[in-house]
Amino acid sequence: MEHYLDNAATTQVCPEAAQAALAAMTEVYGNPSSTHTKGREAKKLLEGSRAQVAAALGCAPEELVFTSCGSESDNWALLGGAEAMKRRGRHVLSSAVEHDAVRKSLDELEARGFEVTRLRPEKDGSVSAEAVAAALREDTILVSLMLVNNETSAVTDISAVSRALKAAGSAALLHTDAVQGFGKLAFTPKTLGADLVSISGHTIHAPKGIGALYIRGGLRLKPFILGGGQENGRRAGTEALPQIAAFGAAAELAKRGLAENAARMEALRAEAVERLRPAVPELVLIGGGAPHILSLSLPGWRSEVLMNFLEARGVYVSRSSACKKGARSHVLEAMGLPAAVIDGALRVGLSRYTTREDIAALCDGLIAAHATLAHR
Q1: Mean pLDDT of 293-300
Q2: 44, 185, 269, 289: which sits with the fewest CB atoms below 10 Å from its CB?
Q3: Is 323 a catalytic residue?
């Protein structure tokens, strides 16, 4: 039996999203830019799906632009945001624990002549508003901080960061990568005070290959992809309607069940910790905050060995972000954790489909690994 617990990397597509994608591929298959009947049908589905995702995020549909993924949204927000604000300054503020899509965008901004400050995280992996306020400068034009860390589940108080910017009279744009927070935490761009918000479909039971960027009304970014006039001239290319329709269906379900699912995942995470702590004395819990990610470590046991041991039992977890492809976690290094803790770290990702049986299988596997695998 399979026990899939890598939902921070990607989620199983829900039946509702799969059905929406199938209908778009086989029934509403016209090009939304075409003016004939099939094109108008497709346009109606496109805008209906946009309204569903916008409602789940809590913004106006016209503030939402579909992208191919969260990474594209991050790239566009940082590169486009910095470009839009460069006449006011060239200082960008972020952190050392961001997703690689943000980190590499920061590297690109530096190559273009911008100055980047990367803040160190707090002990739990979050970034404090006080640290942001202390690092602000008159020429700071963009602040980019992740809402929920994809490795540790640490939650950064973006609302407090927004208040700090306003208190300082800063004109900087505020971007947050909310890929791991969307559908798991209750927020809207307005409650966050964010100008730009990145989200993605594959973390909320929609297919891979679809994301979106919230762009506050009145804020103009240059198109990230040039070509036709799709997405109101903001992103060229024929829209990926099957993925968009699936994203809409999944987002609507995520919004409807948010509180219930979050409470359920939080209870399952607590159940795992309660069982593992007495059985595995070496256990180290890392970060914490969002309900769907449990980051833990067995110092002295290699995470790759633990993963293989669990996989042999049908339990699937990961060691860090899937985008790292096995490399050591920069997030855990930035948190200042000992090498033994980093090398023994595992990330457990829950979803609304996670069961108590899945958690029991995880705990059984880790307890057995602790008892049988060589300590290194």
Answers
A1: 96
A2: 44
A3: yes
Helix (H, G, I), strand (E, B) or coil at 276: helix
- Is the pLDDT reported for residue 83 higher than 90? yes
CATH value at residue 282 = 3.90.1150.10
Question: Tell me: the pLDDT tens digits for 320-348?
Answer: 654 555 567 999 999 999 999 999 999 99
Question: Which residue in 14, 69, 323, 363 is the catalytic one?
Answer: 323
104 with 221, same domain?
yes
Domain edge (last residue) among 228, 256, 284: 256
CA distance 80 to 74: 10
Contact 292, 350 (CB under 8 A): yes
Q: How many CA atoms lie within 13 A of 258 on its CB side?
A: 15
**Class of residue 101 by CB neighbours under 10 A (exposed 0-12, middle 13-18, buried 19+):** buried
DSSP codes joined into one string, 65-127: EEESSHHHHHHHHHHHHHHHHTTT--EEEEETT--HHHHHHHHHHHHTT-EEEEEPP-TTS--
Q: State the pTM of this model.
A: 0.96
Match 């943000």 to its residue by tokens: 102
Q: What percent of the chain stands above pLDDT 90?
A: 95
Q: How many domains does the chain divide into?
A: 2
